[in-house]
């Protein structure tokens, strides 16, 4: 059975047929990682996501698989070591989604990092994180720094450190890990919301869930239940009656997107802001994105919003560090806001809170994983599955094998008998050209889907020799068919935001294709006119959050649904 939106009902039926070993609540990067690890080790796994995969925090990060230079400053040496190793593993296993990106750390008089401290810190960072020799840090003087980045403010500049981070597409990474878990036998479904737990003798033995597409309710049973709901974990704990002790502290991070011509940085940069925080600017094709803020958040978790205050803060930060740019509100093409599910520590501000993860076990047996960061998802999953394995062994199931997900290539990252993914990428481009696919479209597909681009090529009707290339609608139809049939795409807005990233990085393309996407999905999924209207309303609602910004968080609280 394929990972298709058309098979959702069958997937739920299969989950309900027999008791599972493990039910996972939450379809972000943490839940996906747990599903992959547990299924590879032989557990019968079911995963429920109440919206779309990666629709929360896992599509709203800074989109970096980074080693965490700031964590070294906070003395979290083990965290730096761990994420450094994890970054290397992910680069090996998901080369289609993890791209090395030079990062400039400008050093100013009175700034966060002094020149000597930066040199030593970056050296230690490279050593702890196991950075490859060709990517180790270089220290630049002022003149060399300005040659690397002429837009930088020269006043007070002492030099810079040039080191490497890795850029990713967080939503696609989450989805491709989910697809890999599916390939290993996990049963996974989106738009299915936990409504209550089922107990026997005070212990959780299953869940009741609501299928938000069909409207039906379903009961699912499992030996163990894991709460991996990200910013929603406390809500799930509350449903279990176990919200006590440590709790989440949510912080909001906002990113802005501008045309690269308006912020034409030569490479990514990580720099001081006037209030002492640090912000990234990251070039990505035709755009540059900026972020992030870090403010306490206590409003509507399902749809965090960028405010005018957030936007003004980041624009000021950029104009302070890159004076010739003179960014204005009118330059902002798109933006996103995400929530960090951190663990509360008394007396610490948002930027001081640890990004470490923790596991809580309630009296009912519900296992909750909270905190953590994108780069560390695989180790978080390993810890959870190790715990589940120990508990199952104590109950007589037998011991689980150890974690081997460091050896598993993520869906889309296969090299097809080539020694290097870069070689295979070029071959796929040539295959697209031979088939008549516009080179720019083929390149976008390969950067989005990796080797799974071949499945889109297969959905294109062969052209007679010498005929014209495919129309824009034909190319979109093939891409969308793959998305619906092999990525469980249920809503048009999810294709425009999460499957393609268009609403963030190519808003015009999202707007121009929205009606066609809805019409094509209506054919594929048998939507009637009222469902098409509802889908259009959902797209418009999301676009409205891009174009209409509340003034501040106080106003945001007044307009929450």
Describe this structure in words.
The protein is an alpha/beta fold and 561 residues long. The chain is built from 19 helices and 17 strands. The strands form 2 sheets. Strands 3, 4, 5, 10, 11, 12, 13, 14 and 15 form a 9-stranded mixed sheet that branches. α2 packs across α10 and α14 crosses α17. The radius of gyration is 23 Å and the shape is globular. The mean pLDDT is 94.
Tell me the major beta sheet.
9 strands, mixed
Give the CA-based shape.
Answer: globular
> What's the total number of strands?
17
Helix content: 25-40%
Q: Give Rg in angstroms.
A: 23 Å
Distance between the termini: 38 Å
Which residues form runs of ≥5 with pLDDT under 50?
Answer: none
The percent range for strand residues is: 15-25%
Blueprint of the fold:
Blueprint: H1 8-17, E1 20-25, H2 29-40, E2 45-48, H3 69-73, H4 77-93, E3 99-108, H5 115-129, E4 138-141, H6 142-148, E5 157-167, H7 170-183, E6 187-189, E7 192-200, E8 203-211, E9 217-227, H8 233-239, E10 248-259, E11 268-272, E12 278-284, E13 287-291, E14 295-296, H9 308-321, E15 332-343, E16 357-361, E17 367-371, H10 377-394, H11 421-435, H12 439-449, H13 453-458, H14 472-486, H15 492-499, H16 502-505, H17 507-525, H18 529-547, H19 553-559
């Amino acid at each position: 059975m394929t990972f298709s939106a058309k098979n959702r009902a069958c997937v739920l039926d299969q989950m309900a047929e027999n008791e599972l070993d493990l039910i996972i609540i939450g379809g972000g990067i943490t839940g996906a990682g747990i599903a992959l690890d547990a299924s590879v080790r032989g557990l019968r796994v079911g995963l429920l996501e109440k919206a779309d995969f990666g629709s929360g925090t896992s599509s709203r990060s800074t989109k970096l698989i980074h080693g965490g230079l700031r964590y070294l400053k906070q003395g979290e040496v083990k965290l730096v070591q761990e994420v450094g190793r994890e970054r290397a593993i992910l680069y090996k296993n998901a080369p289609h989604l993890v791209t090395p990106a030079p990062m400039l750390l400008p050093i100013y008089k009175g700034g966060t990092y002094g020149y000597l401290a930066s040199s030593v810190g970056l050296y230690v960072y490279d050593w702890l994180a196991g950075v490859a020799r060709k990517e180790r840090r270089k220290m630049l003087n002022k003149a060399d720094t300005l040659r690397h980045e002429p837009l930088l403010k020269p006043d007070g500049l002492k030099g810079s450190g040039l080191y490497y981070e890795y850029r990713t597409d967080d939503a696609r990474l989450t989805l491709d890990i989910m697809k890999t878990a599916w390939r290993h036998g996990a049963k996974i479904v989106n738009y299915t919301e936990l409504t209550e737990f089922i107990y026997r003798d005070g212990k959780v033995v299953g869940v009741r869930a609501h299928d938000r597409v069909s409207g039906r309710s379903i009961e699912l049973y499992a030996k163990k239940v894991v709460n991996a709901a990200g910013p929603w974990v406390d809500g799930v704990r509350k449903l279990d009656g176990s919200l006590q002790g440590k709790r989440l502290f949510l912080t909001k991070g906002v990113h802005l997107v501008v045309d690269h011509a308006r912020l034409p940085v030569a490479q990514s940069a990580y720099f001081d802001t006037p209030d002492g925080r640090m912000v990234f600017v990251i070039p990505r094709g035709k755009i540059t994105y900026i972020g992030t803020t870090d403010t306490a958040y206590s409003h509507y978790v399902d749809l965090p919003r960028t405010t005018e205050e957030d936007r003004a803060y980041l624009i000021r930060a950029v104009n302070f560090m890159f004076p010739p740019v003179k960014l204005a509100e009118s330059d902002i093409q798109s933006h996103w806001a995400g929530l960090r599910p951190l663990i509360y520590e008394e007396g610490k501000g948002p930027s001081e809170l640890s990004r470490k993860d923790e596991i809580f076990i309630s009296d009912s047996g519900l296992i909750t994983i909270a905190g953590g960061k994108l780069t560390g998802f695989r180790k978080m999953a390993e810890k959870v599955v190790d715990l589940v394995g120990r508990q199952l062994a104590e109950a007589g199931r037998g011991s689980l094998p150890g974690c081997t997900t460091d050896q598993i290539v993520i869906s889309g990252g296969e090299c097809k008998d080539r020694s290097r993914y870069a070689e295979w990428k070029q071959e796929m481009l040539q295959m697209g050209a031979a088939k008549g696919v516009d080179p720019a479209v083929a390149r976008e597909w390969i950067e989005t889907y990796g080797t799974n681009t071949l499945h889109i090529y297969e959905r294109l009707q062969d052209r007679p020799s010498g005929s014209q290339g495919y129309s824009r609608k034909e190319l979109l139809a093939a891409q969308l068919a793959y998305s619906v049939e092999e990525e469980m795409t249920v809503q048009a807005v999810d294709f425009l935001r999460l499957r393609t990233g268009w609403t963030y990085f190519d808003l015009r393309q999202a707007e121009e294709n929205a009606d066609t996407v809805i019409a094509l999905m209506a054919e594929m999924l048998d939507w009637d006119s009222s469902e098409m209207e509802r889908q259009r309303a959902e797209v418009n609602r999301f676009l409205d959050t891009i174009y209409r910004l509340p003034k501040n968080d106080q106003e945001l609280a007044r307009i929450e649904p």
